Amino acid sequence: GPFAPVPPPEGLPPNTPATSPPHPSREGEHRRDGGVSQQAGATADWSLTAGSSTWNKLFDRYYRKKELYTMEWGEDVDLAKMVVAGSRFAGPIAMIRDDRKVSLIGAGATLRPTLTIHSCSGQLLASIPWKVPRLAEMGWTDNERLVCVSDDGTVLMYASNGRLVQTFTMGPECKDEGVHASRIWGGGAVCLTRGGSLVYVDDWEDPVPRKMPRVGDQYGEVVCMEVIEPRMTASKGLEVLLAVDKTVLTVDLAGVTDHKLAAGPVRAMSVCPNGRMLACFTGDGVVWVLTTDFAKNLSEFPTKSQVPPTQLAWCGTDSVVLYWSKLLLMVGPYGDWVKYSYDEPLCLIPEYDCVRVLSTSSHEMLQRVPTACVEVLKLGSCTPAAMLLDAKQLLDANDPKADGVLRSILDSLPEAVWGCVLAAVEETDVGL
To answer: What is the pTM of this model?
Structure first.
């Protein structure tokens, strides 16, 4: 993996109290329109071309943030008080009011939450009254079915148009003991009961609840839970990661493994999209990256904040993104980092190669710039594809230098054309 142990980068913000996350530097900071505050921890290498002027260089790779949509759901949507679940590959977005948080309810409005499904641009697709016990977890299947797990283990599955497709229960343990935590992945779901039982289903077509080894309460209270999908594990079976006290447990069908970590307690976890790496936020405010078999420590990054982030997610397989109120921190390979400032609440939706940033007003994509785009659009690039693009821009400007640039790459013209095609595939700007 690209992560490696490094010393803490110089130039980090001064230490902040435990009651607040690190504050961005005020000098050179841009707000919602630009959104980026590149700190001393990241290499200052800014391209001036149209396609790369907003790239951030973290070590030897570039990252960019692009707006996909202006949201159409109105300013009355407060993501800070919502449970939000976005389907992968830019699929639908589901949300429901989080009744664990205090919300202002207008006159004439019902106290019962309403589950809504929206498109990526915020258009309302469905509105569903919530009539079952409190929601424990919500997520999407691989074929874009919305799965809702309630506090008593009842599972409701909806199509993106709001039609109820299926309902079943996670078993008597969930009903009797209640659901403490739950996780949903594309092919199944797992629930941890308040009594320490783990129950899962791994086939949406035949959702038969199956038991995993019981954790009980001998390890202490479970702070957070993550899953490694069966297709990503060596055994091809489900693995559940539980952060308890000062260690992390791995539970599979063979038993419970205590990794006896010394860097705990772990307050938040996120599994890499390929299932090989685990990002943890410790009680000391360190972003700790290690392999999911816990055999190798890859990176430690001090955030100088003991407040756990609201969300911790991967941006592809190269960087980790943490969100606190009004602050997004991306930690790249080898300790480089960059901050983005926001004036409104956010929700992170991880993808295989990027992370989508959802707010009340916009829908953005934060990703590593594909290699094909770097070769064509990076300032100073002399690849045949970059030279071909330069020739095209000179030709559009009626500059006679276009002929000389084009003649210089005649022998590499097929390579140049193919390079531009590969870069175009990765772009969302129709102007390019």
So the answer is: 0.84
